[in-house]
Amino acid sequence: MVQVVIFNNHHGWHSQQLEVALTAKGIKTIRASLDQCRIDLDLPSGLYIPGLSATLPHAVITRGIAAGSFEQISVRLDILHALAELGVYVLNNALAIERTVDKARTSLLLHYQGIPTPRTWACEDTDQAHQLIAQAQRQCHELVLKPLFGCQGQGLIRLSCPADLNTCGAVGGLYYLQEFIPPINKGIWQDWRVFVVNHQAIAAMIRRGHTWITNAAQGAECFPVPLDPEISRLACQATQAVGVDYAGVDIIYSVDKGFQVLEVNSIPAWRALQQTTTINIAQVLVEFLLEKLYCS
């Protein structure tokens, strides 16, 4: 029997949705967490995954990696790397996650491919950060200070002048700064979340925030929206640029520059999106996974 491991640090709705879709295809599902796995050279594969003993799964779906030290995260990614090297299909794999969990790396890859994205800077020096904010102020722009490894809209701070930096400081010793994109209509804060599988947009929604932060996890309202050709094309170009098999791509509209990619999330939640579409997102993911398994 085909066995698929779902890696998540907190198994909940998403794991359940995937499990239902996998079971319907006759696939055995094993829930596990990367922090409970280990590298173990007494085993033939060198890897131990709870629930599998000395065997390996046919595929893995990465739904979450728990926060931890640099060393802990490194070993968890080592396990995902090793699984792929041993012929196990990993959705998304460690390389894809590394390219996207680091926002600076994502920004560079989008820039290299000519994909429109807000102006971005990453530096460690406080004087440089002050100069960048002062430059933005002269140009009548604001900047947003973001955690390099942040998610769900947590820790975002708008900066209007260099003095604003004195109240927050670097995040993890780093200033990751991005140009703030003001709304088209004053007070209406919105962007698009596009869900992409195999570089094809399958569903999208508009996220409208009560504040300038538009993440569903921060209380934004989500509305169904048809797949716009331009937005879909941009989202798929973004997933190709960072090399992910599936992702949630966040896109915003700028009055002077049009649509721009804000972020590519390689471990995206889709519960809010699922409420706006009749497409069974978990089923689409499972069908793609099976296509990879049986065609490889």
Description:
The protein is α+β, with helices and mostly antiparallel strands and 296 residues long. It folds into three domains: 3-91, Rossmann fold (3-Layer(aba) Sandwich), CATH 3.40.50.20; 120-179, Dna Ligase, domain 1; 184-278, D-amino Acid Aminotransferase, Chain A, domain 1, CATH 3.30.470. Helix content is 31%, strand content 26%. It is built from eight helices and 15 strands. The protein has a five-stranded antiparallel beta sheet. It has a four-stranded parallel beta sheet with strand order 2-1-5-6, with helices on both faces. Strands 7-10-8-9 form a four-stranded antiparallel beta sheet, sandwiched between helices. Helix 1 (13-24) packs across helix 8 and helix 3 (94-101) crosses helix 4 (103-112). It is globular, with a radius of gyration of 20 Å.
Beta-strand share of residues = 25-35%
| CATH domain fold name of the largest domain | D-amino Acid Aminotransferase, Chain A, domain 1
Rg from C-alpha positions?
20 Å
Morphology: globular
Number of structurally distinct domains:
3
> What is the CATH architecture annotation of the largest domain?
2-Layer Sandwich
Q: In sequence order, what are the helices and strands, one letter per element?
A: EHEEEEHEHHEHEEEEEEHEEHH
Q: Please work out how many helical segments DSSP would assign.
A: 8
Q: Tell me, what is the CATH class of the largest domain?
A: Alpha Beta
CATH superfamily (homologous) name of the largest domain: ATP-grasp fold, B domain
Distance between the termini: 17 Å
What low-confidence regions span 5 or more consecutive residues with pLDDT below 50? none
**How many DSSP E strands?**
15
Largest sheet report: 5 strands, antiparallel
The overall pLDDT, averaged over residues, is 92
